[in-house]
Design a protein that fits this description.
Length: 307
């Protein structure tokens, strides 16, 4: 992974994913070595963040490097200054860029023009860093991926897309329940199915949350309205009526199922307090693992080749 971009989780091989998780687990409970001393990561953010910003910043510090946060007001990517110019200038100053953007095309254009590794820290297309932290959490809790059934209930958004591709890579069956108009695109489903064929797993899209959750080992949900979609909130609430992850729905999953949510949550909408605070919830372990997965990604991309 040395020197590579991370735009989509599909940029990784199954071996790459395993290496990220193994590295994260090895360093999780021990002191990190300053292998990135003297290196700087630019955090180029168009959207606000808690977990993404803090985890990248702390991870770089733990590895001996430095993170530089660049707000929308300071840069104005594509508005105050062309994307290509931002990428080329930053490439002269920093060792890598983590970009959190509204449009996936912005991440792709930054990567095209940058001479340093580009990490997708969230776009409307994918959220690969979140998916890696989630795969780490599942591996930690279940001891494996292969043979597990992963159920996602809700919007076929950026998180769902990365999780679907990630599940296909590592050998988990992936089932998503989403209403018409909010499903993952056919093109991306086809891509995931091709990956799943290689790992011997299944990708299924259904309308019924009950069908998706029945017997699942992992039950995941996310907000119905993401940043930038606030004007659609009332419409989305109507569309997702019946898709709430509550005790009744969770009872259909395996008794040993874990509950996941990438946060922030809208409690009382996509998930109830009872479930997110319940004994099956691993939501805050999952949030912690953003730090450990981020640190592993940075170490593997920016550390010395072969280290």
């Amino acid at each position: 992974m040395h020197g590579r971009d991370l735009i989509s989780i599909a940029d990784l091989s199954p071996g790459d994913v395993q290496r990220v998780v193994d590295t994260a687990l090895q360093t999780k409970n021990g002191q990190s070595l300053p292998i990135l001393a003297g290196k700087t990561l630019a955090l180029l953010f168009e959207k606000p963040s808690l977990r993404t910003r803090v985890s990248f910043d702390v991870a770089m510090r733990q590895l001996g490097g430095h993170a530089l946060y660049l707000s929308p007001a300071e840069v104005g990517v594509g508005e105050r200054e062309p994307v290509a110019d931002v990428a080329r200038v930053l490439s002269r100053y920093v060792d890598a860029i983590a970009a959190r953007t509204f449009k996936h095309e912005t991440v792709e254009e930054l990567a095209r023009w940058a001479d340093v590794p580009l990490i997708n820290a969230l776009s409307d297309g994918e959220h690969p860093c979140q998916a890696l932290a989630d795969l780490l959490t599942i591996y930690e809790k279940k001891g494996r991926w292969r043979g597990l059934a992963f159920s996602f209930v809700g919007d076929g958004n950026n998180v769902a897309r990365s999780l679907m591709l990630g599940a296909a890579l590592v050998g988990m069956d992936f089932r998503i329940a989403a209403p018409q108009g909010y499903r993952i695109s056919t093109a991306l489903m086809d891509k995931a199915e091709n990956l799943a064929a290689a790992s011997g797993t299944a990708i299924v899209c259904v309308e019924s949350p009950q069908e998706a959750v029945r017997g699942a080992d992992v039950v995941y949900t996310d907000v119905w309205t993401s940043m930038g979609q606030e004007e659609e909130q009332a419409e989305r609430r109507r569309a997702f009526d019946g898709y709430q992850l509550n005790a009744e729905l969770l009872a259909l999953a395996s008794p040993q199922a874990i509950v996941m949510h990438d946060l922030p949550s809208h409690r009382g909408e996509e998930i109830t307090d009872e479930v997110i605070e319940g004994s099956q919830s691993v939501v805050f372990d999952q949030a912690e693992n953003r730090l450990h997965a981020q640190r592993a990604v940075l170490a593997l991309i920016l550390g010395e080749e072969g280290a």
